[in-house]
Amino acid sequence: MRKVGVVWLSCLLVFANAIIIIGTVEGIGSVHNIDTDEYFTTIQSAIDDPDTLNGHTIEVAAGTYYENVVVDKELTIIGEDKNTTIITPTIAGDVMEIEANNVTITGFTITGAIDGNGIRIGDSGQEHQYAHVYNNIISSNDIDGILLTFSDNNVIQNNTLYDNLWRGLSVISASHNNIIENNEIYSNYYGIDYYTSNNVIRFNTIENNDRGIIIRSVGCVNTRVYNNNFINNIDYQAYDIALDCVWNDSYPIGGNYWSDYLGPDVMSGPLQNVQGSDGMGDTPYTNIVGPGGNQDNYPLMEPWEIPPAQKTATATGPQGASHDPIISLTYEWTDSPSAVDLYYSTNNGSSWNYLGTDYTIDGSHDWTPVSDPCPKPSKFYWIANAQNGTDDVGVPANGTPPEAGPFNWNTYDVSISNGDQITSSSGIWQFVSVPLDVNADVLTVFDDSLWGDGGTAWDIIYWYDPTDATDPWKSYNKNWGGIQDMPDLVNNHMGFWIHIIENNGDGVLTAGEGAESGIVQIELHAGWNLVGYPSNTQMQAQDALPGWGTTVTKIGYYDDTAPYDIIETSDGSTVMSAGNAYWVYATAATTWTLN
After folding, report:
1. Rounded to an integer, what distance in angstroms lies between the CA atom of residue 387 and that of residue 395?
2. Is the whole model's pTM more than 0.70, yes or no?
């Protein structure tokens, strides 16, 4: 009997960008590692805890946290509410230093740095990458709100940066391939201070700073500044010493909104030579000061706003996936959002887990679920949400979750004889094998809670190694603990005695996981061999075994009327079938080939 199942990405993936209810558990702290279910009183102690590992998520309840935070692990750290979850330092320096790759920070007010920055990403000693800093308030810090230095491939998005003494945002020292978008940057000395190349600055509002944006690098290669709003910055809107910084995208995406632009809009088209207004100035914006001599060729007549994206989404995936299927998610937008947040569900949308964010807006995302078993649905549902302005979540596509599946993970149901008679005090012995190309230890392969419904349990398992003449019997007993004889890997060549102590639920021991067996070769040693039967085709022993009657002369099979008893026979008509184990007697060493 085959059993359908699916193994999905960890069931404790964070509900990032969704509504998160984070509560303080009385007496045990307000900072929660949801992967270990441990609570702490400070953010730093949660990070430093040895149980906190790369990939974990830390949730922080509303409140004020007086600490300087160093993030030196690959973590997602989520504040309950950016207005009421506040981090402020106790000593001079940065409020938060990101010193690891793949860090996500969201939902905080970060304020009050003394001779430091609100958030610093990277340093001159080692480059750090792939930070996602979004939906935070970063204000009143002595130097910069956010500083990127020697740091690539980061996304700085949907933050509010204001009243920082020096700069709202600095991008310096060979920081490349960063996306800076949808931020509100106001009332700083510099809105953005930029000294590098190969980045995108878009969809930001830079307003009422002493100086809007300054491009300090002579080489500004592959940097694009477009669809930003530059409003009433005092000394200048933009200063540029580079010769190659691009201040607009192609037509009709256009350039930036400049509050001091006074040109007309009566023409349209890439050359602005066709009658009719198009929302872009007919003449370039040339008030970008500095020796670079650059201009915005398509200045916007009105402040730029992210248009609401109309969405449709579909899900595709392998039917009957056997192992680590690649799920292809596809979606279409009538307008172009700044990013697409992806979520999955195992319960038809009753709850959602954050999967990732697509910043390329290319309409597709491939997801390979890892083998981290949870209860295994045969389908999953997903949604793609456009990021719309300051709204990170957006609206589900058509209000209906697309569906992918069903997925058939290769597990195997081992039948349990006399299952209704099993009690935890006595139990019964079963003689079993797994006809799959499994590749794990006995604790993993024969774990019904991992692969099945958890209703079947065992405590002792035996197997036989004919190559060990002095001690061929091996065993593992869950009651003993410590180092035992457990083999590193179970395979479909092996047979096992297994002591079943509980058999509730669906009444079978579900084992897994692996592909169906193809051609299998089992080495038989002279004498008795305890083997599995890795084929889904039943055969008589005389047809299945090599050289029946000469090389192989006897077979032993399980008698379920007298558990832990074997019937030995030379009858070649004995039927061999998957899931059972057998004793096979060989007069000489030989290879058994089975398909």
Report:
1. 9
2. no
